[in-house]
Amino acid sequence: MIPNSNLRLHILNTKESTLTCNFFFASSSLHLHLFYYLCIATPPIQGLISIMTQKPLISVITITFNASAQLPPTMKSVSRQSFTNFEHIIIDGASTDSTIDVARKMATENLRILSERDNGLYDAMNKGLGMAKGKYVIFLNAGDAFHSPDTLATYAKAAEKDTDIIYADTVIVDSERKMIAPRHLSAPRLLTFKSFAKGMLVCHQAFMVKKDIAPKYDLAYRFSADYDWTVKCISRTTPEKCVNLNTVAIDYLNDGLTDRNKIKSLRERFNIMCRHYGVVATVGNHLSFVIRALNRKLSK
């Protein structure tokens, strides 16, 4: 006997609306035959079931809230990718502007949208991790963009060796998509747990990780949970399983939550560093950070 079950299918028509279909079936012969007819014997439904159970290689996760102005470059960069074995997930914080309309209008066929209230950026990221079906996850927030049409193809090529973490460099762009400068910290040739004792050497958006080793974001942190999360991911693998693409992968918009809360973010990051690397080492490293910042200003 098959126990009572509940199968819920969420079908997103990205151009129009979200449709939720519920199939309830019990152990009775009639219900089982009806379920077989709908889901197996009928080709359109069979195709739907196949599509919904197929797992993509990469899950691209975008977080939005009232981001209708910032989202188009992100959507455009996703839709023009030459690599297609990925899904795009948008986690929206119940926007009151036209963010969802923009997402649907510019959507790829593999887009899924969740729009509901959340408890901040990192809570939304946790929701994205929970929805992700891909073997790998990468976050591309509203305003950020893949640097070229072949960016995901480059990540996918490196993933063929069953790598745990794949990372690359980032350039900073303004709201007109003009490059301001390369990111002041470059991705290290060899990525180890100790690498991030020197700061956020890899931009969060250029960091693709195998979902199996990715923890949830710690909601105790409001501004630097991405730094904590990245360090935890690195601690769960070895340098041999991390690959530097040695190329620019991300255009990072110079207008994020952390940029608007710089001091709070740095204070929070200092506490995270102390937790992972110890107080003495963290204080010593911060002295070198000050020297590094002064040299950067003097060189301008």
Q: Could you provide a short overview of the structure?
A:
The protein has 300 residues and is an alpha/beta fold. It has helices at residues 29-41, 43-53, 71-79, 99-105, 121-131, 151-159, 225-235, 262-277, 279-298, and strands spanning 5-12, 18-25, 58-64, 86-92, 111-115, 136-139, 145-146, 165-173, 179-182, 207-210, 242-253.
Q: Any overview of this molecule?
A:
- With 300 residues, this protein is α/β, with parallel strands linked by helices.
- It folds into three domains: 5-53, no CATH class; 58-256, Spore Coat Polysaccharide Biosynthesis Protein SpsA, Chain A, CATH 3.90.550.10; 262-298, no CATH class.
- It contains nine helices and eleven strands.
- A hairpin with a 5-residue loop joins strand 1 (5-12) and strand 2 (18-25).
- 34% of the residues are buried.
